[in-house]
Amino acid sequence: xxxxxxxxQLSDIESKILSADTEIQRLRSVKQALLKKRDELKxxxxxxxxxxxxxxxxNKNDYPWHEQVRKYAKETFHINDFRPLQVPxxxxxxxxxxxxxxxxxxxxxxxxxxxxxxxxxxxxIVISPLISLMEDQVMALKRLNxxxxxxxxTTPKEEAQTINSALTDPKAPxxxxxxxxxxxxxxxxxxxxxxxxxxxGQFARLAIDEVHCCSQWGHDFRPDYKFLSIMKRQFPNVPIxxxxxxxxxxxxxxxxxxxxxEGCIVLRAPLDRPNLRYEIHPKPAAQKESIKFVxxxxxxxxxxxxxxxxxxxxxxxxxVAAGLRECGISACPYHAVMNAxxxxxxxxxxxxxxxxVVSATVAFGMGIDKPDVRFVIHHSxxxxxxxxxxxxxxxxxxxxxATCILLYRFGDIFRQSSSVFTERSGQENLYAMVSYCIDxxxxxxxxxxxxxxxxxxxxxxxxxxxxxxxxxxAVTTKEVDVTDIxxxxxxxxxxxxxxxxxxxxxxxxxxxQGKGSKKLKAEGVKSxxxxxxxxxxxxxxxxxxxxxxxxxxxxxxxxxxxxVAGPMAEAVKGGNKVxxxxxxxxxxxxxxxxxxxxVKKQKTSSGSKEKGATKASQPSCSDGIVIID
Length: 629
Known about the structure:
Layout: H1 2-55, H2 66-75, H3 86-94, E1 99-102, H4 111-119, E2 123-127, H5 131-143, E3 148-151, H6 157-166, E4 176-179, H7 181-186, H8 188-199, E5 203-209, H9 231-234, E6 240-244, H10 249-259, E7 265-268, E8 276-282, H11 287-301, E9 306-310, H12 314-326, E10 331-334, H13 340-351, E11 357-360, E12 373-378, H14 385-392, E13 402-408, H15 410-420, H16 426-438, H17 444-451, H18 459-462, E14 473-481, H19 483-498, H20 505-512, H21 532-544, E15 548-554, E16 559-565, H22 569-573, E17 579-587, H23 592-606, E18 625-627
Parallel strand pairs: 1-6, 1-7, 2-4, 2-5, 3-4, 5-6, 8-13, 9-11, 9-12, 10-11, 12-13
Antiparallel strand pairs: 14-17, 15-16, 17-18
Helix pairs in contact: 2-4, 3-4, 11-12, 15-16, 16-21
Subcellular location: Nucleus
Pfam family, one: DEAD
Domain Helicase C-terminal: 290-441
């Protein structure tokens, strides 16, 4: 009897649970419908906001602050004319509108918040990722008698107290304050000061330099930039001006969402730098030979001209600088392990042309504003096209001809991939860089332009400003069925796996060429007769196209990249064909008349000061192989 009562109670509870589950499902459906409606409304609001902002003429000169902007531009910055997009950006931020400004390195982004700060009431806060960059900008502004200051961990205590007091004093002589994102994220006292400034109407605007650092998809993500996501919620009426030289459409959308400024106008200047010539060269395998190769380029083409050589590691910056000095070129390393005084000394000597070359890691980057850099050479592969564009863009800021050279070697792919594979989209970004290097046909400028989402066909206007568009270079192509080659690689990998061996790229190459350990030689596989360089290009393209993949393993000292079959392996084993196009580059044969004219030009060029404009005699490495669509 008692059991029947309990059984009835259990039945009632199960019935109620079923009813609750049904109600939960109904509410979930209601929630999903509401979420969909909310998202649709957000999109419509964003679209309408963008349309309204786009209809506004931000270039017109009848804004109430126009005369003041012109006055300060001339008297403080000694500027008579503005560059494209500077006026719209200035007018937008002075109108209280949020804006993201994408402008090439050296295009004049800083002026777009420095000028408005003088015109506005209150103080403009500038977020900057590097203390050295802030120091350089504040020093430059103070030389112009501009009321700027900075707060960082290195700011003397008394000076920091004076600045903090000035933040809430309407009569204080500060119009622009630079701080790092770390300071903002970790100082509750500073945030309290901003709250007081906002309440008193003294928080004029927030400028975020290198705004791409907000995005986890970006090439230079900084965790402390995530804190900036609260700024729009805390200070809704403070306009945000985000500035960067490099951001794809995907990264821009991510930044807008993270900062809470969806629908803001994005001002994007054309990223092509017509005065820069881009070249890819094969990198000699031996370190001494690669340094000698760099030295030969500098002595032959850039004698007594200023330049930067970017290196993969701190050790390499030291070796390259020492090797260049042995070749009679004044060079010093620059990297993060050096103490601040030594780094400043190198920077200062180079800026004053007392030092020809800085051999540097990417630590020598943001804020480098030397106008007469005639060459930037990448001794090793850059980790992404975003990084490469920004680093190479330190050349030719005076708008005169300059040259950007990258030395490409297959082995450098895996040094980089082992360091970036933990980053979100790190490997994808690196492979885009590799594709750029081995592409022996398409205009380098077009590849960069398309990467950043620009539609214009730069190749039409390139002329000879990249090695692939050089009219003196002949390109021959040959389509080759490489299905058997790819299957051979799979046999070598399967054989190694059966013997509990993992193959690094070097070991795979050796096994394919019949070198190295005998146990890695698969039965029935003949050694390839192709050159080492061609084999490397086959492997690189197979990686890019998914026929091979990298598998990373951690040791106590480093991450190691091993090669395994890629996601396309099943299709190949199932009978799909694989075709690559082999491209060979060579100098076009000149007629007798052309040859005489060429000799004359070379003689004239060798006596010219602008040696950065001369063409390379070294052929590009792009005997590239890319998959045929």
